[in-house]
Amino acid sequence: MLDHHTVYVDLETTGATATHDRITEIGVIEVNRGRVVSEWSSLVNPGVSIPPMIQALTGITNDMVALAPDFEDLHHEVLKRLDGKLFVAHNARFDYGFLKNEFRRCGVSFNARVLCTVKLSRKLYPHHARHNLDTLLERHNLDCEARHRALGDAKVLWLLAQKWADERGPTLVQGAIDLLVKSQSVPAGLPDLAFDHIPETPGVYLFYGDNEVVLYVGKSINLRARVMSHFADDHRVNKDMQIAQQIKRIDYRETAGELGALLLESRLVKQLAPVHNRQLRRNTQLCAWHWRDTDIEAAPRLATAGDIDPAKFGELYGLFRSRATAIEALREIAARHELCHVLIGLEKRAGPCFAHQIKRCRGACVGLESRAQHALRLKEALSALRTLPWPYKGRIGVREVATNGEIAELHVLDHWCHIATVKSEAELHDISETRATPTFDVDTYKILKRFLAKLPRGVEIIRFAT
Ligand SMILES: [Zn+2]
């Protein structure tokens, strides 16, 4: 607030809830380069009756606001005064939340960098337990000429700011402010310190909205940084804007390392179908081409569902999400490599295939190319689509240990399937008792293929005796 172009803001309202209570008065002190540039305040007609208790507290009565403009009349003026400046208020979440809601009713999305003077006071004077405005006034020997009126309270905040800069020194105060401004941008639906308890470890985070609806599931090797990046003002994508408006609660699960986070995220996204995750389609339509490069007489055969067996990997090509994409892919490969449509099973007829008639097949169908030669070219053409045979003998364990040493996890895997993640010998024993056939999941396959191809440092593979 020392370096920043700042507005000290205070509101009086009809009650404590930003969603249905309304503003009755706004006070704004604008300060630039340490000087007051303007002071402005206005009563606001809330459109509802002010409860007697609040009238008594603020001295703002129904009669006083009866002829005042309503927020909509004022919103251009208010926006002009606040826009682009550092928004400073005591319990800023309250004032900011009220203003955001009032602006929203006028169809305006109001966003500002916010500094809460309660938080700043706590940071500068951590040994004091209480930081409400009356306590601060008394502690710092300040008078307020109009306590509980918007402009009066806004002025007091400016006085406090100057007092703090005197007592603590401008450098220290500026540092504390910069830290607070940077670490905030907590969405309105979350408590002020919502990010503070999130660890900087690998894991999976879950965003919840109203009625515990799961909005989003994500993973990171640094949970707190990733969660905060969703709400950083400078590079917000549309999806994050929507999440910021809907979010009510954050939950997280720590994992020992990256693989644990990847596997857990993939499982939770399928299980919970969060509103803002791109939905991965189920495996039921999964297709692949089955072909043995030793069987040169046979055409590739379309394998589906139960035939997609990791034990056959190496002879399966593709892993497509539908029949149509599988056929399209083979057609494209045939065209690119001048393969014979009859030999690869795309066309059923005797004699030259249609492709040969238009000179797109090298003529294996009419004896111009040997079967063996054609099979060799098909093998090469399909190589990029070849599924990878499980490179181990049966089950393995992948051991990840957290950098702080607090969590160790063993991911038990078999033929590209994730059997379980265990944290102790006892758990490992339990799962070795049960030998249920795991279900193949294409996303798990992709995760494991990528991860096992290049193991991060410190990750250990354990081969179980079979
Ligand atoms: Zn042909």
How would you sum up this structure, described in words?
With 466 residues, the chain is α+β, with helices and mostly antiparallel strands. It has 4 domains: 6-183, 2-Layer Sandwich (Nucleotidyltransferase, domain 5), CATH 3.30.420; 203-272, GIY-YIG endonuclease; 284-385, no CATH class; 396-463, no CATH class. 36% of the residues lie in helices and 19% in strands. It is built from 16 helices and 15 strands. The strands form 4 sheets. The protein has a 5-stranded mixed beta sheet with strand order 3-2-1-4-5. Strand 13 and strand 14 form a beta hairpin. Helix 5 packs across helix 8 (170-183), helix 7 (150-168) crosses helix 8 and helix 11 runs antiparallel to helix 16. The chain is elongated and about 100 Å long.
Keywords:
466 residues, alpha+beta, Nucleotidyltransferase, domain 5, GIY-YIG endonuclease, 4 domains, five-stranded mixed beta sheet, four-stranded antiparallel beta sheet, 36% helix, binds zinc ion
